[in-house]
Write a structure and sequence with these properties.
Number of helices: 8
Strand content: under 5%
Shape: globular
Order of helices and strands: HHHHHHHH
Length: 139
Amino acid sequence: MIVGLHLMALKSVDGEIPRMGDLFGSLERGPAYLLALGIYCLAVTVGLVLLIVPGIYLAIRYCLFAQVITDTSASALAALRKAAALAHGNWAPLGALFFTAFLLNIAGMALLGTGLIISFPVSLLAIAGFYRSLQPAAI
């Protein structure tokens, strides 16, 4: 269902109206998402254990994998490669966006989790908008 949430955010950013069916309409992308998420979490954890900086580097480099899977139905490894390509040259804004989203969601959790009702969708929409801004313009 998380892939469906990403799809709904991308549709909202694209000016389309998301439907409840979108939430379950992309279940076939779930296995690729879970595999990519597992690889991402493992790489970031190893990077954080080694030294803090490699973990942050890996977290920023591959953070857009979910949007890639949602948007293109890519495999897990292809999504991670494409996410790395999108992050290239966009380190500062991407890092700032994800740090801001992290702080926003921490603040949402601080309110006994009820703040996540607002902070999580706002974070998804902001990330989807940034992802779309990295896409080449259609002619």
